[in-house]
Amino acid sequence: xxxxxxxxxxxxxxxxxxxxxxxxxxxxxxxxxxxxxxxxxxxxxxxxxxxxxxxxxxxxxxxxxxxxxxxxxxxxxxxxxxxxxxxxxxxxxxxxxxxxxxxxxxxxxxxxxxxxxxxxxxxxxxxxxxxxxxxxxxxxxxxxxxxxxxxxxxxxxxxxxxxxxxxxxxxxxxxxxxxxxxxxxxxxxxxxxxxxxxxxxxxxxxxxxxxxxxxxxxxxxxxxxxxxxxxxxxxxxxxxxxxxxxxxxxxxxxxxxxxxxxxxxxxxxxxxxxxxxxxxxxxxxxxxxxxxxxxxxxxxxxxxxxxxxxxxxxxxxxxxxxxxxxxxxxxxxxxxxxxxxxxxxxxxxxxxxxxxxxxxxxxxxxxxxxxxxxxxxxxxxxxxxxxxxxxxxxxxxxxxxxxxxxxxxxxxxxxxxxxxxxxxxxxxxxxxxxx
Length: 435
Known about the structure:
Elements: H1 9-17, H2 25-35, E1 40-44, H3 50-64, E2 74-78, H4 81-94, E3 102-105, H5 111-119, E4 124-128, H6 129-137, E5 148-151, H7 154-159, H8 163-172, E6 178-183, H9 191-198, E7 203-207, E8 217-223, H10 227-240, E9 245-249, H11 253-265, E10 271-273, H12 279-290, E11 296-299, E12 312-317, H13 324-331, E13 341-347, H14 352-362, E14 367-369, E15 385-386, E16 389-390, H15 411-415, H16 428-434
Parallel strand pairs: 1-6, 1-7, 2-4, 2-5, 3-4, 5-6, 8-13, 8-14, 9-11, 9-12, 10-11, 12-13
Antiparallel strand pairs: 15-16
C-alpha cells in the first residue's frame, strides 16, 4: 500500500482519486530510498512503474521542504517528446491539489512561450535534452538551486548520442542535488561514465531486467515471404485477434508511411507516428488513442520508449528490430501493470539472422506460429547436404598423383620442328669474318 511510504497527504489524496493502491516492485524498492535523499541507479523492465517511482519522492520533497526563494527545484530529463508529454501529464495529475508549478520544455513547442514560462521559475521542469540546452545556453534557466535531477530512460538518451549533452546539463545543476537515474537496461558503453560523473555513491536497484522473458507477454514469430505477404498477415491479425489497441512497429518512417497507405487501400484505419510528424499531429494521434477513437497505431521506434497507452494488448513488429533492447521496448508497450499482452514479429528470410541474434540477447526462444490460410513458402534456413555430409564439415583429402603440367604449343612452333633456327643477330666475331 502507498500509505506505508508516509507520503504527503495531498499526494495521497491524488493517488486515491487515481485509484493507485498497491505499488509495483520497483516502486516498493525505490521510493523509500529516494525519500531518504540518496542517489539512485535503477534498472527495471519497461512498464514496471518507474515514472511513479521517481515522481512521488520528487513531489514529496518539494512539498515538505518549502523554499520560496529558490527557482526551479526539480528537473526531469527524457529522450523523446512523447515520453516527456506523458510524464508531464502524470506529474500534473499527482500535483493537482498542490501549488507546485510544472513546465514542459520540448522540441516542436513554441520557444518564446516556453521562455516566458521559464522566467517565472516553475518548481518543476520536464524536458527533452536538445530544447532544454537551447534555453540553458541563452541563460533562460537557473539550475543553481536544483534539489533533484531525474534522468529517465537513460539508456535511450545515450543510444541517441546525448552523453555529452547530459553531462553538460548535469554540470550546470547544483552540485549538492539528489540524482535519480532510471533505465530499462544497463547495456550501454556510456552508462558507466554517466553514472560515475553524475551520481554520488548511488544505491543500485535491479528488478526484472529486460533480458529475461516477459511474464505477461506471449512472444510469437510468423514467417513471411516478402513485404506484400507481411501486409496480408498484418491485416489478418488485426481482423482476427482479440485486442483493444494495437501498435505496429516499423524500422523506418518511409516503411511506416507506405504501410499506412496500404492500410488505406484496404479500408483499415490507423494512425501514424514517426520523427517527421509535427508536434500538433502527434498530440492529436495520441489523444485519439487515449480516447478510444483510434485503436491501431503504426510507429517507428520513436514511440517504443516510454509510450504508455492504456489498453495496448497487441504489438506487431512488421519488421524485426535491429537491436535486442529495441525489441524489448517495443513489446513492452503491452503486458503492462500485470495485464496480459501478445507480441507478434513477422520474419522474412533476410531477417532470420536478426531474429537469432535477438533470441541470444533475450536468452529465450520466440514461439513459432503459422496462419494456415497465409502460410509462407519460406520455412527458415535449410541444412543443406552434399555427398552425405553437412555443409561446413570437412571432406577427407584423397591421395591423388599430381597431374603433369601441360605445355601449350603454338602452331608456328609445330611447323618449324626439325628446321635450323636462324640467329636473331650477329656476334662481333661473325661481323669481323664477313669483313
